[in-house]
Amino acid sequence: MLDPGLAAALMSPLGLGVLGLLVGSFLNVVVHRLPAQMWRAWWQDSVEFQLADPLAWQPLFGGKSAPPPQLAAAAQAVAAELQKLPEETLLRPRSRCPQCGHVLRWWENIPVFSWLALRGRCSACKTRIAWRYPAVELVTAGLFSAAAVHFGAQPATLLWCAALALLLTMALIDFDTTLLPDSLTLPLIGLGLGGALAGWTAVTPTAAAAGALAGYGSLWLVGFIWQLLRKVNAMAEGDMKMFAGIGALLGWQALPSALTLAAGVGAVVGIVMIAGWGRDRSKPIPFGPYLALGGICCVFFGPALQALWFG
């Protein structure tokens, strides 16, 4: 059994803030490596199951046709390039400078402190280290500390910290790549449903299940209607799964507030980017960061926001 005093210290705003710094450092790794792993898997699948495969070619182009020889050559070239890539997981190899390959020593990998000590540059090649790395660590620490204040020193607070970390990670990956991995969206749904069943989220299992269905279905309906009107796919399936996770975590009652916040902030940012920075109107704007913002606001201010809709 953990000493009650030590447990209280670990679950305090300071204790969870320190945990948030460590988790934020890991989130930086996830944001960088997870999309690369997805792209690598997609290329591997293309080589093995699609390019130059008659079983994938003939159902579409006819049973008597054969894949062009150029596809076989392309498949071999892609396979050769894939073999050159080193094996990489979220834990291995150790973090290194993307410019010169310098492996970070332990003292170069301390959240925030190392970035400040190195003055934001690689110790080997002096390449600038993006300010976003310490920013993510500080934001994660702030969210974890806020969860400690808001929910108190109880085991359920760790569930909310995990949910906040998932939302932040999805926002960053979607912003960078317009991808929302199933390995993040589905655990958020599971976290919401499991937390409701355990009685940790103050949401009934029925409301959590209804929130998951309503979250997915509402964005699917928006995308379907937009497709009919504009012939453009306005909503990706990753957005639907992410919103389903928010609904499972907070209940269906939180969905109007989360979606209104996401759509409002997204619209303002989109207008500013198009009018002020000349962003191409045809280029899609990722919706995940704004869904994450709406979800995080509802985690901390849900009752006040719900009162605007339901009294």
**End-to-end CA span:** 44 Å
Q: What is the 3D form? A: globular
The overall pLDDT average reads 91
What is the helical fraction, as a range of percent?
Answer: over 70%
Summarize the helix and strand pattern as letters.
HHHHHHHHHHHH
Can you summarize the main beta sheet? Answer: none
Describe what you observe in this structure.
This protein folds into 2 domains: 9-117, no CATH class; 154-310, no CATH class. The protein has 12 helices and no strands. The chain has helices spanning 4-10, 13-50, 54-61, 69-84, 113-117, 132-151, 156-177, 182-198, 205-230, 237-250, 255-277, 288-310. The protein is mainly alpha-helical. The two termini are 44 Å apart. α10 packs across α12 and α11 crosses α12. 70% of the residues lie in helices and 0% in strands. The relative contact order is 0.09.
What topology does this entry show?
Blueprint: H1 4-10, H2 13-50, H3 54-61, H4 69-84, H5 113-117, H6 132-151, H7 156-177, H8 182-198, H9 205-230, H10 237-250, H11 255-277, H12 288-310
Helix pairs in contact: 2-4, 2-6, 2-7, 6-7, 7-8, 7-12, 8-9, 8-10, 9-10, 10-12, 11-12
Compact overview of the structure:
The chain is an all-alpha fold. The protein has twelve helices and no strands. The chain folds into two domains: 109 residues, no CATH class; 157 residues, no CATH class.
Keywords:
2 domains, 311 residues, mainly alpha
